[in-house]
Design goal:
Belongs to the ribulose-phosphate 3-epimerase family. The chain is an alpha/beta fold and 216 residues long. The protein has helices spanning 16-25, 48-57, 75-81, 96-105, 151-165, 179-188, 197-200, 205-213; strands at residues 3-6, 30-36, 61-67, 85-89, 109-114, 132-136, 170-174, 192-195. The chain starts with a strand and ends with a helix.
């Protein structure tokens, strides 16, 4: 049974407390929080103050995805804001290992995210040091995009790399996740399903989350 991490990027920001309350009452495992800086990706979302408020509204895992340049400058700040899992992009850092160690030294789980064009094989020398790999199944920056089918091949390749080494590394997928493709994604090796519009634009978000939980 996968973990489900609804992405608050698709939520109603005017009703953020209500959205958190709904997620608290649902079968959601994590809250996925996308931080964008307008430089690494062509969009700006929200930052530390919003995450601080969300942290006070939930006891569930806060899964923070940094789509920003120079993430190393803000690791401690996101820890203080309440991040439990902190994911940085492979493409955004020249000193990946150092930042992963920094994240883990502060007591957070460390994740690395890959854009759709970045080969999974590039993770070979860092895989043993992380807790999670986030496969972007759309180009990062905007919600509501269509799932890139090539992502299945990349997920299976990553699953094989992890299993061959006997590692306890989760695979998370983000972008275009639906109730329809969730099952095949879990079968391909995904542990954590991130879903934005699928959850928040549905008529019954709690039922949709429950359906995602039973995928695979």
């Amino acid at each position: 049974m996968p973990l489900v991490a609804p992405s608050l990027l698709a939520s109603n920001f005017l009703r953020l407390e209500d959205e958190c309350k709904m997620l608290n009452e649902s079968e959601a495992d994590w809250l996925h929080l996308d931080v964008m800086d307008g430089r690494f990706v062509p969009n700006i979302s929200f930052g530390l103050p919003v995450i601080e408020h969300i942290r006070t509204a939930t006891k569930k895992v806060c899964d923070v995805h940094l789509m920003i340049v120079e993430p190393e400058k803000y690791i401690e700040d996101f820890k203080k804001a309440g991040a439990d899992v902190l994911t940085i992009h492979y493409e955004a850092s020249n000193h990946l290992h150092r930042i992963v160690q920094q994240i883990k030294s502060l007591g957070m789980q460390a994740g690395i995210s890959l854009n759709p064009h970045t080969p999974v094989a590039l993770l070979e020398d860092i895989l043993e040091d992380v807790d999670m790999i986030l496969i972007m199944s759309v180009n990062p920056g905007f919600g509501g995009q269509k799932f890139i089918p090539q992502s299945f091949k990349r997920i299976r390749q990553l699953r094989q790399m992890i299993d061959e080494r006997g590692l306890n590394v989760k695979i998370e997928v983000d972008g275009g996740v639906t109730v329809e493709n969730a099952g095949p994604l879990v079968q391909a090796g995904v542990d954590v399903l991130v879903a934005g519009n699928t959850v928040f634009k549905s008529k019954d978000p709690k039922a949709t989350i429950a359906a995602l939980k039973r995928a695979g």
